[in-house]
Write a structure and sequence with these properties.
The longest helix has 19 residues. The mean pLDDT is 90. Helix content is 75%, strand content 0%. The termini are far apart. The relative contact order is 0.08. The chain is mainly alpha-helical.
């Protein structure tokens, strides 16, 4: 891989500022078009570089391969969507440009948590806010944050906070 990168650099004879511009442009494309099918070959072409040289240069400048960077962007966007919406995991996967199976695997690899563990954590955090700031019933809170069973919600809540939702509410954790 390195010999091709060197050959690409020699053949292209681009100054450092040009390579910085190319990587900045590639990052912009990836950030704007992360849900789309982006091939390294197409990215390299769009910034006017040969694919192998582009990949080596990208890794040198960012510390990540183009594929790894794109995966990180997608998982970051997925985390934001999971926190700020009521979308299902498969809907989020589709919105960030991944199929459900790959999404679950890549999510776990990037975050250290499964998609379901992450979703439960988000739901519990939302419920804690509601318990502190409203008088809505615990069952209604459970349903409103996405649990289909208030009993299961209470068990998960106690496991995370070492208090039942009722105990948590009575302590008014601010």
């Amino acid at each position: 891989g390195h010999i091709y990168g060197l050959m690409g650099a020699l053949l292209q004879d681009k100054p450092a500022a040009r390579s910085d511009d190319a990587i900045a442009k590639a990052l912009g494309i990836m950030d704007a078009h992360y849900p789309e099918l982006l091939a390294v070959e197409e990215l390299a072409q769009s910034v006017g570089l040969e694919r192998t040289y582009f990949s080596c240069l990208f890794k040198e400048k960012t510390g990540f391969s183009p594929y790894r960077y794109l995966t990180m962007v997608r998982i970051q966007k997925a985390c934001l969507l999971l926190k700020s919406s009521d979308l299902s995991i498969s809907q989020v996967a589709e919105l960030v440009g991944l199929d459900s199976r790959n999404f679950a695997r890549l999510f776990k690899k990037e975050t250290g948590k499964s998609t379901m563990e992450n979703l439960i954590e988000i739901r519990l955090a939302k419920s804690a806010v509601l318990l502190n700031s409203t008088e809505i019933s615990i069952s209604e809170i459970a349903y409103s944050v996405g649990f289909s069973d208030p009993k299961h919600f209470s068990q998960m809540f106690k496991r995370k906070y070492n208090l039942t939702p009722g105990e948590y509410r009575s302590k008014k954790q601010f």
